[in-house]
Hints:
Layout: E1 4-9, E2 13-18, E3 22-28, E4 31-34, E5 39-43, H1 45-51, E6 58-61, E7 64-65, E8 68-69, H2 72-87, E9 96-101, H3 107-119, E10 124-129, H4 130-137, E11 148-153, E12 158-164, E13 167-174, H5 178-193, E14 195-196, H6 199-208, E15 220-227, E16 233-239, H7 240-263, H8 267-276, E17 278-281, H9 290-298, E18 302-304, H10 311-322
Parallel strand pairs: 1-9, 9-10, 11-17, 17-18
Antiparallel strand pairs: 1-2, 2-3, 4-5, 4-6, 7-8, 11-12, 12-13, 14-15, 15-16
Amino acid sequence: MALDVGIDLGTDSVLVYVRNRGIVLKEPSLVAYDRSLEMIRGIGEEAYMLLTRGDANLVAIRPIRRGIIADYKMAEEMVRYFVTKAIGRRSILKPKICLSVPSGATQVETRAALEAGYSVGARDVELIEEPLAAAFGAGIDAGRPTGSVVVDIGAGKTDVGVVALGYPVIAKALRVAGDDFTEAIVDYVRRKYEVRISDQTAEEIKMQIGTVYPLVNDLTMTFTGRSLRTGMPEEIEISSEQTREALSESSRKIIDTVLSVLEQTPPELCADILQRGIILTGGGSRMRGMEQLIAAKTRIRTMTAGEPVRALALGIGKYLQNGRSGYLLPA
């Protein structure tokens, strides 16, 4: 029996949804390539484990960058691996595959996504715009004529869209998201203290005390980096207010994109948006203070979806189950 498969090809991770089974797989969007043997040694979790061993011959390849396919060959191998792992080799008929694509994806980017799906033997490949998929996954009744705003902040990009009648009315993609928050903290510590820290340390700072909005009680964290002056380990303390300063440029770009989309929204949908508010999805939406910042700048009630990280994959799954405009109907 053929299975329908929905794939959220993220910059940081890949989620696979199988019709009538839900999300069956979540693994790193990562390939471990052996330069000496000129072959792939591992994909997903297996790649991550291999790369942590410090083998000098292995290089980490991320086929998806900023939400789009950057390395077609590796993306094809990754999709094939994850689809096979999700449905096994027992399926007699070829699966239908549904992939999400960012708002404003170019013809080249769209073609790459289609070809990646067909290359693994799909009987049919369908694409869904990410704001719409995120809206479905967040539980928004986006198939109705009322307008809703969704802001999907992933690892490599942010998608902002107003959806109604099963389509994005206006949508924009911004190549700024969670990874940029991490990079901003690395840059801030280097400029402020002349200390170099790893991306992993910056990620820990971001998750533990990072904020894009002023906190009532400031948080602090102590960490160790390498001094650029002496080359020796150096211990530094940083506060939440300092992270807000570090993240201000990236968060401003996200706010500007949200405001731009709202300014272009048809007047007849404005009342709906004020009533329904703005929904945040994606891993980057969990950034401390993001709800408050967007609400303060837009003056519109803002809330985060119940399962922000899984929202896109869940939305693709609802689309597979029921179609673009009928996803609210029983399967």
